[in-house]
Design a protein that fits this description.
The chain is mostly beta strands and 336 residues long. Among the domains are: 84 residues, Roll (SH3 type barrels); 136 residues, Sandwich (Immunoglobulin-like). Strands 1, 4, 5, 6, 7 and 8 form a six-stranded mixed β-sheet that branches. A hairpin with a 2-residue loop joins strand 12 and strand 13. The longest helix has 17 residues. The radius of gyration is 57 Å and the shape is globular. It starts with a helix and ends with a strand. InterPro entries: SH3-like_bac-type. It comes from Candidatus Thermofonsia Clade 1 bacterium. Keywords: Signal. This is SH3b domain-containing protein.
Length: 336
């Protein structure tokens, strides 16, 4: 196939232009090397990760360590009172073996089935700790510290309502267990102040001023006490009397034409009341010494008071060199 002439001319022109462009006919220039400054590449700097530096490896303090939780032994502990209960103090109430028998049995427990520890003479002083719930047996401590049980009707207690009541089972348990020694008072305690009753015998009732108290008659089953008093104008004079006075009081029983001593009330200071007021309003102290029940017969109280030095009561003087050096009196009564 043949090309048209115009087309052949056009192709020749295009070829010429192409050769011109390739520099075949172009002007040559000296070659110049230009140093092109190096442009920093757009290389990205290391990317900061979004992971926090301090959380990549957990910091120990961010996790609570065991020492931050106090162990139980380090927690302050204040014991409560119920943790170690305070023992209830032993109540001691003064009493005495009455004269119903010449002597009584001190037993190892609250009942006749318990062994006899020893016998206790009538009139002996003792301390009562408690009484069984059936009110039959006293838990007592003798003055030498021996503890045991005595039948209640054989013990005289001036203030029976002050004696704690124990369950019989508790007393039985005490009888089977060793018991710690009880500290007995070293000084004679005082008893609550009270007024005399019919079963209280005034030690000097035969004196004319006290005839209303004379010639009393009692039954064999009545618990009796012998009492006397002392008053003064001031409390200081009362104390002065107590410091200097000595009472010698004894109970006697008529045997034919003679009086036989039944008991000496040598423990009278164990039965002195707290300070009270006499009917005349003056300060006064009283003594109520229990003697228990007595057999039928005629009895007499023999009373004698002396002082180691001269004292005053606000009205008179007593003791050596005083207006009255010795104070005496008697009181006769009967039991039938």
């Amino acid at each position: 196939m043949f090309l048209n002439r115009p087309i052949r001319i056009g192709l020749g022109l295009i070829a010429a232009l192409a050769l011109s462009a390739c520099g075949l006919n172009a002007q040559t220039f000296p070659t110049q090397i230009v140093a092109v400054p190096t442009v920093p590449t757009n290389t990205l700097a290391p990317l900061l990760t979004m992971t926090p530096r301090f959380t990549a490896t957990p910091i120990p303090t961010s996790t609570l360590i065991p020492t931050n939780t106090l162990p139980p032994t380090e927690t302050p502990f204040i014991p409560t009172e119920t943790a170690t209960p305070t023992p209830t103090p032993t109540v001691l109430v003064r009493g005495a073996v009455n004269n119903r028998n010449a002597s009584v049995r001190l037993r190892a427990g609250p009942g006749t089935e318990y062994d006899t520890l020893r016998t206790v003479p009538s009139g002996a002083s003792l301390f009562v700790i408690g009484i069984s719930s059936d009110l039959l047996w006293y838990n007592v401590v003798l003055e030498d510290g021996t503890e045991g049980w005595i039948l209640g009707e054989l013990v005289t207690v001036p203030e029976r309502t002050a004696v704690p009541v124990f369950a019989t089972a508790e007393l039985t348990a005490r009888a089977a267990m060793p018991r710690a020694a009880i500290d007995l008072p070293t000084l004679a305690p005082t008893i609550p102040a009270r007024a005399p009753t019919f079963t209280d015998i005034l030690a000097y009732c035969d004196l004319p001023a006290f005839r209303a108290e004379a010639n009393k008659t009692f039954r064999p089953n009545q618990n009796l006490s012998i009492y006397w008093t002392w008053y003064a104008r001031t409390v200081e004079q009362i104390q002065d009397h107590l410091d200097a006075a000595t009472y010698e009081v004894q109970l006697e029983r008529r045997e034919g034409d003679a009086w036989q001593v039944v008991r000496k009330l040598e423990d009278y200071n164990n039965y002195r009341t707290a300070l009270t007021r006499a009917p005349n309003g003056r300060p006064e102290v009283r003594w109520f010494v229990p003697i228990g029940t007595l057999e039928t017969g005629e009895y007499r109280v023999n009373y004698r008071l002396t002082w180691s030095r001269r004292i005053e009561d606000g009205d008179s003087s007593f003791g050596p060199g005083g207006a009255e050096e010795i104070n005496t009196g008697t009181c006769v009564f009967r039991v039938r």
